[in-house]
Amino acid sequence: MAGKRGATPATYSPSLTTAKGKKKPPIFTDDANWVRSDGRHFHQCRPAFLRIATVNSASGSAYAEFGNTKVIVSVFGPRESKKAMMYSDVGRLNCNVSYTTFATPSRGQGSDNKDFSSMLHKALEGAIILESFPKTTVDVFALVLESGGSDLPVIISCASLALADAGIMLYDLVAAVSVSCLGKNLVIDPISEEEVYQEGSFMISCMPSRNEVTQLTVTGEWSTPKISEAMDLCLDACSKLGNIMRSCLKEPLSAPEE
Amino acid sequence: MEVEKELVTPGEVLGLGSDFKAGKGAYFSPDTKTIYASLTGFRSIIPPPIDATDQRPTVEVSGHKAHGAVPEPGSIVIARVTKVMARMASADIMCVGSKSVREKFTGIIRQQDVRATEIDKVEMHASFRPGDIVRALVLSLGDARAYYLSTAKNELGVVSAESAAGGEMVPISWTEMQCPLTGQVEQRKVAKVGA
Amino acid sequence: MAAASGSNLSSEMEVDAFRRLFPLRFHERHLLQSIRPDGRTLGKARDTTIALGAVTSANGSALTKIGCTTMLAAIKLEVMTPTAESPDEGCIAIDFHMPPICSPIVRPGRPAEAAPVLAKQLSDTITSSGVIDLKELSLVGGKAAWMAYLDIYCLDADGSLFDAALLSAVAAFSHLRIPVVSLNDEGRIVLVSEDNGGGKLEKEPVNKEKRKLKLDSLPFSLTCILHKNYILADPTAEEESIMETLVTVVLDSSSQLVSLYKPGGPVPAHTSAIQDCVALTRQRLKELQKILNGAISDMEVD
């Protein structure tokens, strides 16, 4: 019978006939003239679609869509901390990131990103005025509906919007952007296919108005000039993203005059 | 609306520390000597009181969506008694001031905080019953488990209680309530109505 | 002293505080006037929307909203070897998830009790309604068939979860597009890429005609609360938490009864009340069919 657990046979996702023995995707080639598969320039981010107050059951929430990367974040609290917790004069932040089973090309792959919960926590914590909710906890839960690349930076930016929507006091918003190193080129806001072939990855989370970095991760092989180039690219993109986030927050308050 | 107010979001600059004081929804950064918004809302300026020594006006963020109500020391809360023990009663805080809380916070009323007089003679079981609705004052953030609550004032104590027979009881003195169905009198630490 | 202390209390506090402290009294006051706190009449369901194709990583998907209750259903097709007993049938695996984003009562690592119950109900309803002929999922008799993984995620839990979940599942099946595949020399099913579908194909596709499932009689449902003599259609989470007797009726497109759930609750249901619920579901069925057909034709226009 359908739907019965345990009885489900082993399954596989059919792959493309062309995937085997054919030439590598153009991403591999060092040709400076290749175009990104979505037609963007190397230093161009995907258009960001942001919306707040999408989950009514939560104290605050936000939805972010960057290309095929789609994320929802709900914020609950400040609410009672778990009973097992020690007394704390400042508030606590608790973060969790999960993926839908269909978020990735092959089923259930998203659960590989176990470190995202703690990365999210570390990226946000410095921006929250924890003294404003002593003893209580603010929960930030993210669900990746579809993974389309640059998932973590999208989650971080979306979570910061959800915190602002929940009325949690913040030093600043947090905007996050990543860059992939592909051969000689740096591409910003990479999609999944680009991340697969990247030689190195660079991500910054920052408070755009305060000009402070809350998180910086560098993986892979990087030369010093490349790092500073990536840093400039990310900081510039973060400040632009920050402006988009601010207009998203202001939208419901700037009273419609119709 | 008199003037078009400026909309701000967390992190936006509200003014310099030398010109303003930070009000609600705003914070002062000693590093940059600047005042920033911490919430989304309208930037508004409140002139200082005429007799104040500090003549800087206050800049704050108003009309924002603040987070849900959270108990603070000094706030008056409405709570539902969940458990009565020999030395304390525990209660779920449902409202802070006139605002309901989204979820619940746990509070406890210790024996010495039930009433102002003869504190050593307080009988917890003759003061509260599970299910009672009490009005209480938040004494402190308490411990990891609960907020500490007090009913040691005339206007604090049980404000609504059901009798064993299921009737809505009527206060007859500051220590007794009566069931309108059976006439049965039960003991409570009753809050003085309209005090 | 005529006034009871409770009513004195109610006069001094804000409406939402009274609602929080005395929820049953608050709702019964409304019921007396045949209106609900959100302004609906008792038999009226909330505004409902369906958006097809919400996620591109799945073969079929739909986002549905009933009031604030939001569900995202997605179907991913994978290939399996059919069982010996039914060599020419595929399979459907249905799961229902309540991630922590959807409700303050769900915490990570502490799943909602309701989720497995709903998963079972949804699975039973969809398989028993005969909406999908499993033979349609066959690719190569005895060798390969589709396994359709249907995962439904609750994104915002505000009552009547089953109705919204079933609607999203039905909508996702309506949106499902089966990829063209062929059998390669190693006996594996591989995708035939759309753009070189012309001349240089080595293998003939095995499912050229079967791009869409034939959906026979779609099931639709309505959940009602029974409270005293009142019947409240499409309850919110708050209503469900206060008045606990629920009845869920599932009808198919031709108004035939597929299933009926009344999972206990303090109010025993008279047959007349059940009949009233069925009548309300019959009305609701028409609304839902119209909304789904609208969503399907919107998609075909695009």
Automatic annotation (TrEMBL), chain A:
Main location: cytoplasm
Transmembrane portions of the chain: none
InterPro entries referenced in this protein's UniProt entry, alphabetically: ExoRNase_PH_dom1 (IPR001247), ExoRNase_PH_dom2 (IPR015847), ExoRNase_PH_dom2_sf (IPR036345), PNPase/RNase_PH_dom_sf (IPR027408), Ribosomal_Su5_D2-typ_SF (IPR020568), RNase_PH (IPR050080)
Entry keywords, A to Z: Cytoplasm, Exosome, Nucleus, RNA-binding, rRNA processing
Domain of life: Eukaryota
Locations listed in the record: Cytoplasm; Nucleus
CDD domains, alphabetized: RNase_PH_MTR3 (cd11371)
One Gene Ontology MF term: RNA binding
GO biological process: rRNA processing
UniProt domain Exoribonuclease phosphorolytic: residue ranges: 44-168, 172-233
Any one of the GO CC terms: exosome (RNase complex)
Region Disordered, residue ranges: 1-24
Similarity section: Belongs to the RNase PH family.
Full protein name: Exosome complex component RRP41-like
From TrEMBL, chain B:
Record's keyword terms, sorted: Cytoplasm, Exosome
Domain named Exosome complex component CSL4 C-terminal: residues: 99-141
UniProt keyword Cytoplasm, yes or no: yes
Keyword Ribosomal protein tagged: no
Domain Exosome complex component N-terminal: residue ranges: 7-45
Any single Gene Ontology cellular-component annotation: nucleolus
Coiled coil: none
Compartment list: Nucleus, Nucleolus
SUPFAM superfamilies per record: Nucleic acid-binding proteins, Ribosomal L27 protein-like
The protein's name in its UniProt record: Exosome complex component CSL4
UniProt source species: Cinchona calisaya
From TrEMBL, chain C:
InterPro entries on file: ExoRNase_PH_dom1, ExoRNase_PH_dom2, ExoRNase_PH_dom2_sf, Exosome_comp_Rrp42_subfam, PNPase/RNase_PH_dom_sf, Ribosomal_Su5_D2-typ_SF, Rrp43
Entry keyword annotation includes Nucleus: yes
Subcellular location: Cytoplasm; Nucleus, Nucleolus
Family note: Belongs to the RNase PH family.
Nucleus recorded as keyword: yes
Organism whose genome encodes this protein: Cinchona calisaya
Domain Exoribonuclease phosphorolytic: 45-179, 218-282
Signal peptide: none
One cellular component (GO) term of this entry: nucleolus
Gene Ontology biological-process annotations: rRNA processing
GO molecular function, one term: RNA binding
Alphabetically ordered keywords of this record: Cytoplasm, Exosome, Nucleus, RNA-binding, rRNA processing
Protein name: Ribosomal RNA-processing protein 43
